[in-house]
Amino acid sequence: MKPTLMLSLTVSLGLAGFMPNVCVDRESRPDNWCFHPDIAIAPAGTGVYVAYEVDSLAGYVTVRSDVRFQKSTDAGKTWLPHGLLLRCGELFASTPDVTTDHAGNIYVVFTEQPSSSEGHLFSMRSNDSGSSWSAPVKIDDNVAAVAVGWSRVAADSAGNLFVAWNYFRTGISHIWSSVSTDRGTTWGPNVRVDNDTVSDDHCHPDVFVQPGTNDYLVVLTAPFWVSEHYMNSHSVLYRSTDCGKT
Q: What pLDDT score was predicted for residue 245?
């Protein structure tokens, strides 16, 4: 569901009904690679929004990464001349996700790491179609930086925001979540999503709000023991019917 590496909006390859590839990012410098794009549509269908990570490289070693934003007002045919810099990572701002609510607000969540492995999660909001953005607001409630990442965001019909992510606060990765009821101005307590007792990493959540019910859905990768010495993984679905409390 989440494409990586190349920021082409569509892949043509002669398939009927697909327009030609359109380059979304404009960071066409030899020392920059683009990763982890995510896409959202304006509620009225008047805008297409993409958030993505730009890595500055020296050879094959990543030096730092930023989060940028792009938009199209003509169904993806053309894009802004340059991606808008949302967060300059020191060292890393990475793996963004983007969504909209029914009021037309745009939200981007991302990981920020001041070191190579530990950091926090942040959200930013735009109420003017991406022209300007709020200051970053921390989502995770850990005081110290820990290994976090891969945050995913969705909005319910009331405008509440739901985020789930990989979180190493217990020493291994589990999936945790938080809800904002004030359009990303503040975030509630972090709640663990998975109830698995297997001592291995859970990772890569994706989130969705089920229309008509406002149930929060999370799908994630969860490990299980095949035998005493062999572990494999399932894709597992969790559902919250009380706005992310349980």
A: 96
Chain segment 53-87, per-residue pLDDT in tens: 998 776 566 578 899 999 999 988 899 998 999 99
Query: What's the rounded Cα separation, in Å, for the pair 151 and 23?
Result: 25
Euclidean distance between CA atoms 166 and 105, whole angstroms: 25
Cβ(92)–Cβ(74) below 8 Å = no
Structure tokens at 59: 């050879």
For 146, which DSSP code? Answer: B
Work out how many domains the chain is built from and give that number: 1
Phi-psi region of 71 (alpha: psi -120 to 50; beta: other; left: phi over 0): beta
- For 77, the domain range is 32-204
Please give the sequence-ordered ranges of beta strands (E in DSSP) within the chain, or none if there are none. Answer: 32-41, 48-58, 61-72, 84-87, 92-100, 106-113, 120-126, 137-138, 148-155, 161-167, 174-180, 191-192, 203-210, 215-227, 230-240
Residue 65 maps to a domain: yes
